[in-house]
Design brief:
The complex is a heterodimer of chains A (about 100) and B (about 240). Chain A has about 100 residues and is mostly helical. Chain A is about 80% helix and about 5% strand. Chain A has two domains: about 35 residues; about 60 residues, no CATH class. In chain A, helix 3 runs antiparallel to helix 4. Chain A is extended. Chain A starts with a strand and ends with a helix. Chain B is mostly helical. Chain B is about 70% helix and about 0% strand. Chain B contains eleven helices and one strand, in the order αααβαααααααα. The chains are: A mainly alpha (about 100), B mainly alpha (about 240). At the A-B interface, strand 1, helix 1, helix 2, helix 3 and helix 4 of A face helix 1, helix 2, helix 3, strand 1 and helix 4 of B.
Chain lengths: ~100, ~240
């Protein structure tokens, strides 16, 4: 189902996103009051929460321009070196900006 | 997990205020992320009110950035919601790990406190509990600090974002992708995770090429998640 981003569309999407997120904040506590969450489910959730980000980024790198690729590369390297997200993101944005000025 | 000490679950106004103050330094960074989100949201075409509303009600950075990635004249609602769920599913684990202490609170407080649960204040709260100190003040007070800074940052980003003419030449269209990538690289890294990510990446790419638009996010998330569920980490739970 697609929703148009004209009129009230965005509000509906934002409210639905808020409800889903609230369900994740409440769900763990709620479920635990009946039955402990199994190790397998925990492993699934852990693997999935990283994988969804990877799944989002990969096409950006493949379909994007060289500036985009350079930005992602710079972010990855800075993140591995400093382990701090802000410098890593700044490096990525800067790399894309510099590359596109050439 | 240790059996919770009787007083560790207490939640007084004093503890909330202390928790708030302890999370202020981290919250300053959250302002910067909020600015990045506000910028990206305005570029994507959200209105000012919509951007601030999203940060206020959703309050989960990575999933908000991800939703922008799927935003357009038409937004695939189901895909967006599944993506938001997949990214925020880690909150389920936070709630589960906090349960030994939360169970002593009346339901209203228990669920009220969880409304502002996010990575930083959860980690600080758990750290406090392992040191036999009360942690729920950190969770709630700290959460309030993070939440207000996230909203403030978003608002500032909108403010700057509307003044920028050519965001692409400044590399600002990459804020989203770089943010998400930084989250991935900053997470647990071990051979098992790298294999899981590779499977997620390649199945996402295949879906991107051959399956309907936007299905790649869910395909990649499920492929990685299922692999993780069947190829479990041996050893202790953390």
């Amino acid at each position: 189902m697609s929703i148009e981003t004209a009129g009230m569309g965005p509000m509906v999407i934002i409210l639905a996103m808020a409800l889903v997120t609230l369900a994740t904040r409440w769900g763990g506590v709620y479920v635990m009051s009946f039955v402990p969450i199994s190790y397998r489910v925990k492993q699934f959730i852990n693997a999935m929460s990283g994988s969804v980000l990877v799944a989002l980024i990969t096409p950006m790198a493949v379909a994007g321009d060289n500036g985009a690729r350079l930005a992602l590369l710079a972010t990855a390297i800075m993140m591995l070196l400093t382990r701090k997200p802000l410098p890593a993101i700044a490096a990525g944005v800067l790399a894309a900006a510099l590359f596109r000025q050439l | 997990m240790n059996s919770p000490h009787a007083e560790l679950h207490q939640l007084s106004r004093q503890l909330i205020w202390t928790g708030f103050k302890q999370l202020v330094p981290i919250s300053l960074f959250v302002i910067a992320f909020g600015i990045a989100f506000g910028l990206a949201a305005i570029q994507t075409g959200l209105s000012e009110a919509e951007s601030v509303l999203m940060s206020t009600l959703v309050f989960a950075g990575a999933s908000q950035f991800a939703s922008l990635e799927l935003w357009g004249p038409q937004v695939p609602l189901f895909t967006v919601l599944l993506t938001v769920f997949a990214i925020n599913a880690r909150h389920l684990l936070m709630g589960a790990t906090l349960y030994p202490w939360l169970q002593h609170l009346p339901p209203g407080k228990r669920y009220g406190v969880m409304m502002v649960a996010s990575d930083a204040n959860w980690a600080m709260a758990m750290q406090a509990f392992t040191k036999e100190q009360p942690g729920l003040g950190l969770l709630f007070g700290g959460g309030l600090a993070l939440w207000s800074c996230w909203i403030l940052g978003t608002w500032l980003g909108i403010f700057f974002g509307s003044a920028i003419q050519e965001p692409q030449s400044l590399g600002l269209d990459m804020v989203m992708g770089c943010f998400l990538l930084a989250m991935v690289v900053g997470g647990d890294k071990n051979p098992r995770m790298l294999v899981i990510w590779s499977v997620a990446a390649s199945s996402s790419l295949l879906a991107y090429r051959y399956l309907p638009e936007n299905s790649h996010v869910i395909v990649g998330a499920l492929a990685g998640g299922l692999l993780g569920a069947f190829w479990m980490e041996s050893g202790d739970e953390h």
